[in-house]
Request: fold
Amino acid sequence: MPRITQYEVALKDYNKVKFFPFPVRPGEPFMLTSNPWNFLKTWLNNEIKSIRRTTDRKLRLEKSLYFLELAENFQNAADGAKLPTKGTFAYYSILNLIKVYLLTEGIDLETTMEHHGLSLPSNETKRLKIQPTNGDGINVFAKFSELIDSPVTSGDFISLDEMISEIPEIHEMTFNIGKLTTAKRKFLPVEIQVLTNKPRRSHLIYELKYEKKNAKLMQVSKFGSGNLHAKLEQTQDDGTWITFRSKNRRNYTKGSNSSWNSNYKSIREELIEIGVSVILTRTGYRYYLNLQPNKYRPISYFVALMYYIGLIARYRPTVYNEILTGEYQAVLNETMETCPHQFLYYVSSLITKKVCAVPMAKIN
Reply:
């Protein structure tokens, strides 16, 4: 009779190895901050001070401080404004945060033409068009999406219903107003653990489980086909939880940082590929599995939605009155109240390669 492999939670330097969709090290602890703006400024200033000579990277980092200040001021203005003005301020905060990220990733700005990368054609009211990426300019939306491994297709149209259906923070409200693009809810709450075999600790897997009560609410049959079926195998059904484990066992050397880093990166990429997203809460990050993912990652749809809200607020008052004061009002108001601050923590984590999170002591 074959021996059944036993598993335990993987530890790196005594810290639990958890999944995060950011380029962090395995076992990276939380960077708790009530004010990500100040944390980002401090991090950028420290990076600048660490570069003694004037280099291209130093110049980009210095430039990024300017865009960071713009982003913070726009968000402060948005927090004190009402729609439609709020939408314009919030989008420009998002745009300038993206510019900070592009600069830290080595993409220079001011050297060529830059454009948003999206448009709302005059004959459209609920569909954005992805603009071409020209060789002599920077398509901000396309470049950002490319850097987060969500490359977009020039000429594609993205509908308003698609945008709001692909953002986990507003998923439940989108479903309840009848605008979800699928018949059932599709963001399944899951728990994820990175495990290692014991006692040898020679390979890594991940475990993903969901509460059985959600099976009636969502199309969990998706686990039996496509990418989920290719990557996961069911290992348990205890009547309350349905548990899956990754089919791929990643061999690693527990004393080697490079082995840890490469295998953890592989696990992170696979979890993102199968559709796992996170939402930041006061108790940490919660995981959601998109059972019917669309073409792009949720964060790209969020940026597109913020562009849409900001654009119709500025240039399309008739469309604004139809959309923002009509049947979409509740979900778009919820977007404005919740998602920009989620995005701030997300981009802060991308830039600093730290797991930025909200302290439990924060009470407002």
Summary: Residues 212 and 238 are 9 Å apart (CA to CA).
